[in-house]
Each structure stands twice: as structure tokens, then as C-alpha cells.
Amino acid sequence: MKKRVTGFDLARALAIFGMVIVNFKIAMNAETGNLLLIKFAGLFEGRASALFVILAGVGVTFLTNKARESSDGAFVLKNRLSLIKRGLLLIAIGLLYTPIWEADILHFYGFYFLIAAAIFTVKDKALLIISAVIMLIFPVLMLFLNYEQNWNWSTLTYENLWSFDGMIRHIVFNGFHPVFPWAAFLIFGMWLGRQDLSQSLMRKKLLAWSLITLLVTEFSFYLIRVTIGDGSALEMTSEEVTFLFSTSIIPPLPQYIISAGSSAVVVLIACLYFSDRFSESNINKWLYKTGQLSLTLYVAHVIIGMGTLESIGRLENQTINFSLLSALIFCVCGIVFSVVWLKFFKAGPLEWVFRKLAS
């Protein structure tokens, strides 16, 4: 797959839309309103961001394919240093952005990229093994470290972030998207990027396995929760049962990683099919162009989107109805901006700046 595949950009756009829905809901503390809308918004929690990270892994593979296939050590080193530079730049940008948006994912991305720089030359099987090991390290860390340390669950804020201990814990173990286990998504994405997704058979295999894995994981842990019940038989509280045996993002236990990763692959394969089937449709063109400005829109949804809502006094304690309406308006504006911008420029504004700084 040498040329740019618009299906990946389409998936990236959907990931951004999902993150906007989730982040607007969090920022507005939108827990009241239509119950169906609350459940709808909940579908994207921890799923849209997982898809976003997996797509970043696919992108890493595309960036390094030539170097990986080359026997030129100098060329490999150049690509390795390029990934390190991108990672350090993302860390710097993300940490500068964190005081504005505490749930920032960019600085975590930077650390994922540093790991990618070290391992992008390994074989396919090794990528899957590394991904699994990173996923499994997290529950081991939970045995020795307090996952809830520094968290204020009532406000969903991370305290002592800027202390040395707090920052290390936040990045490695118990932040919003810690290296253990979230880097597993990026490394799995690197493996996924090496598969020939232009072949129908490969797509069907990945889709089938992902659907089976998703359904089995969700159903299995649902049965576990039902069997345990309120947890009294095991001297656990119902909150502890949910905490340990759900497939939600907090905490990001292996069942969450497997479930979210599987759902991400299902969405990605669906986007590839849609983009091929409707390659000339305006909807496809508008969405894949939007995906090409994902970095710009990610930053803009906080700076411009939430900033505008805050200026009119509608950012906090809103209903889910208003939260989703605001997200919809931002996403539509993002599509319009992306289509118009790419009529005159080859890359989004922040994408262009990032490439210049990282080159």
C-alpha cells in the first residue's frame, strides 16, 4: 500500500469526532438529560482515542517502511532519530498544552513514539509480543502501586501532576493515557500498518477476528460481573467489581485494551471498505480531508470549541443534549474548515508547523 489510503484519513476523522464528543461531555460534566444520548456518548469513551493511537501506529509504519526494508544502517538511524525528534516535539507541545487541557494525549504520544523509534525494525511477530507485554505490565504494576493515587474522581482531575513523582506516575502508570498500557495500541497499529489491507481476504480475516474477539471479551466480562453480583460473596463492593471486571477505560486493564483495540479495527476496516466503495462521494471526500487535519482539530476543539463555550458561560454543568449539540456544531465546522483549507494548502496549519519543526 504505497499510495495514501483515504480510508485511514476517514477513520482518523471519525476518531477525532468521537474524542470531541467525549471531551465536551467531560468538560461540561454532562451527566443529565436524555438517557439514550448519555449512553450514546458513552460508546465513544476510551474507544475513539484508542482508534486514534492505533492510527498513529499505522502512520509510524508508513513513515519507516523504506528504512525497515533497507540494509542501509545510516538510513535506519536517520529514521530512528526522526521518530525521536517527533516524540520529543510531541512531549513538549503536549506538556505546554496540558495546563489548558489536562486530559491531553499529545505528550503521551511522544513517549509512544520514543518506544516506536527503538523497535520499528523488529519483525511482525515481535511487535505483537511487545504490545501484549506492555498491556500485561499494567495489571502487574497495579499489584505494587496505587492506581487511584493523585486522582480526584469527583472532578476527574489529576492532582500533584507537576511534582516529579506525580508526573512519572501520570506518564507511566495512572494518567489519562499512560505508557503502560496505552503504548500497546500504537505498537499494535505498527503491526497493522504492515498488513496488506488493500487485499479483500486480509480485511475479511481482520474483521472476523476483531468482531469475534470484541464479542467474546464483552460477553465474558459481562457474565463475570453478573456472576459476582454485588461482590458480597467475595467480600468486594459493587464499585470494586465494576472497577476490576468492566471493559471501560478506567482502569485500562487488559480486557479494555483487547475490547477497544478490536472495536478500533472493526471501525478501521469499515472505513477502508466505505472509502473504496464510495471513493467519489462528497461525504467520503469531506471526511478524509477532515482526517488530514486531525492535529489541528484536536487542539482547536479545546482552544476554540471549549474556549467559545466558556466565553458564553456554557462550558460547565450542561445537559448531554447541549453537549452533543455543541460537539456536532464543532465537527461540522471542522469539516467545512478542512475542506476549504485544503483547497489552498497541502497540509493543515498545525500539521505544517509540526512537519517543519520535526524535519
TrEMBL record:
Keyword NAD: no
Positions of the DUF418 domain: 257-358
UniProt-listed Pfam families: DUF418, HGSNAT_cat
Keyword Repeat listed: no
Listed transmembrane segments: 7-26, 46-63, 83-100, 106-122, 127-147, 167-194, 206-224, 253-274, 286-304, 324-345
Domain Heparan-alpha-glucosaminide N-acetyltransferase catalytic residues, every copy: 4-204
Protein's recorded name: DUF418 domain-containing protein
Keywords: Membrane, Transmembrane, Transmembrane helix
